[in-house]
Write a structure and sequence with these properties.
The chain has 8 helices and 4 strands; from the N terminus they run ββααααααββαα. It is mainly α.
């Protein structure tokens, strides 16, 4: 046997359906009309009291700005007191999860360059494993490798931050290539890294 739960309407005191926000059907159906009347009354009051409304809004904005400045000041003071601890935590996190740092840095550079695409820390870790933990250009093994964009982010066309455009590179090769064309870079370095794609 099914029992129906009834509640008291918070507006008129009648029986309210459980799914009607504590209102009976009649009061629930009147909600949009009451909201429209409230908006109309607020608009009428604003047009009649524009100077007062603007002054209230300016005071609210000034209060919010002062509150934000106080919060920023507290954050600055807290950072100054615990700077060494925070830096140590950041360094430990970067050393424990270097692939996350690489992905985060590349994402920031891509946003700055307005380049499409993105890759995750897991995708970069897989990419490094495909190259056997070696630099894609000099083929030497390294514990720490950077995300190198084969087509540089600074190029206006054809570049992206997707994993297909990413290879692991040591700091020296990454710095040497810079914004050079991949083929020109390989030619200038006597073809170093030409066979890197086969490493995996």
């Amino acid at each position: 046997m099914t029992s129906t739960i009834t509640r008291t309407c918070t507006a008129c005191g009648g029986s309210a359906a459980p799914s009607r926000r504590g209102l009976c059907n009649r009061c629930y159906q009147a909600v949009p009309a009451r909201a429209a009347r409230g908006r109309a009354q607020a608009l009428t009051w604003y047009h009649s009291n524009k100077d007062r409304a603007r002054e209230t809004e300016r005071a609210r904005l000034n209060s919010d700005a002062a509150s934000r400045e106080r919060k920023r000041q507290r954050n600055r003071e807290s950072y100054a007191r615990h700077r060494e601890i925070r830096l140590a935590k950041v360094l430990a996190r970067q050393q424990a999860h270097p692939e996350q740092t690489v992905a985060r840095t590349a994402r920031y550079r891509a946003l700055t360059a307005k380049a499409p695409g993105a890759f995750t820390a897991a995708e970069f870790a897989t990419r490094v494993a495909e190259f056997g933990g070696r630099c894609a250009y000099c083929l030497r093994p390294y514990e720490s490798l950077a995300a190198e964009h084969m087509t540089p982010l600074s190029w206006p066309h054809g570049s992206s931050n997707s994993i297909e455009n990413i290879v692991p590179a040591c700091k020296r090769c990454n710095s040497s290539k810079g914004s050079k064309n991949l083929l020109l870079f390989l030619h200038a370095t006597n073809g170093i890294g030409v066979g890197a794609a086969a490493v995996g």
